[in-house]
Amino acid sequence: MEVELFGQTFESPLLVAPVGVQTIFHRDKETGVAEIAREIGVPYILSTASSSSIEEVAEANGDGARWYQLYWPQDNDLTKSVSFRFLHIKQKSRATFEKRVLVVTLDTWALAWRPADLDNAYIPFASGIGDQTGFSDPAFRAKFAKKHDNKTPEDDVFLASREWEADVFSGAAHTWEDLELIKAEWDGPIVLKGIQHVEDAKKAVGAGMHGIVVSNHGGRQLDGAIGSLEVLPEIVEAVGDKLTVLFDSGVRTGVDVIKALCLGAKGVLIGR
Q1: Residue 8: beta bridge partners?
Q2: Coil, strand, or helix at residue 132?
C-alpha cells in the first residue's frame, strides 16, 4: 500500500512517531529503532526528548527517511542550532536530504500535569534522561558554560536538565508569526503536530505549512482534549487538498490505522 509523502514514496502509510526517552524501554533506545526503521523503509521521527544524540541517530539510520520532531525552545539560538544539526549532518547519499521533514509540536510548550508520574516520582529529565539533544548541542553547552563558570552539562546534570527543560517546556507559547523563523532556518517540508481544530488547520495553510498531524498527544498532554479521530474528517474536508494531513494518537492496531486512512489521513504515526 504505497503512499507519497512530501515527494517521497513509501511502501506503507506508517511512520514511527516521535516517542521520547526510549532508553527506558530498551538499551538500544532511539538508535535501535532508527536502524530498524531504515531496514523496513519506514520514516523515523526523532523526538527532541531523545536519550540519543542527533548524530548517533543519524549514524544508525544511515540513508533512511529521517524526520525531526521539535519541541520548540524559547531561545532562538537553540532553535537554530538544533535544526541546523539535524538538517546538515553529512549523509551517506544526497537522496536523504530530500527526506528531511520538520515536525513542530504545538501542544507541549508546558509539560502536562501527569498524576501517575507524580505519584511515582517519575521525572527522567531531572536525571538527564531524555535531555541528550540539549546536552550535546553546541549552543546550549556554550550558554551553560558561560553562565556557570565553564561547567558542562555532565558536571551538573540536575542543573543542566533544569535549564534545558525550562527553555524547551517554558510555559510560554509561540505565535503563528514565529513560524517565520522556522521557515527561514529549515530547508524542507514543515509539519505542525497537535492540530485539533479546523480553524487551526486553516491557519497552518495560511502560514505556508506543508502538513499537519491531527493529534492530542496520545491523550496524555491536555486534560479533557477531544479524540483526534473525531475531528479528523472535518479537518481533512477543510484542508486536505491544500496540505498533507497525518494522524496520531490512540493507534494500537492495524484496524486503527485503517480507520484513520479511511477518514482521510495520508499517513499514520504509531508508537506509545
Answers
A1: 5
A2: helix
- Cβ distance 244 to 225 under 8 Å? no
Name the DSSP class of 110: S
Strands 14-16 and 8-10, sheet pairing: unpaired
φ, ψ for residue 50, nearest 5 deg: -95, 150
Please confirm, yes or no, whether 210 is among the known catalytic residues: no
Sequence-distant (≥ 6) Cβ neighbours of residue 233 within 8 angstroms: 263, 264
Rounded-to-integer distance, Cα 57 and Cα 65, Å: 12
pLDDT per residue over 156-165, tens digit each? 999 999 999 9
Question: In the prediction, which pLDDT does 95 show?
Answer: 42
Instruction: Give the active site residue among 26, 88, 174, 217.
Output: 217
Which pTM value belongs to this model? 0.92
Q: In the chain, what is the straight-line distance between the N-terminal and C-terminal CA atoms, in Å?
A: 23
- Tell me the helix, strand and coil percentages in the chain, rounded to 5: 45, 15, 40
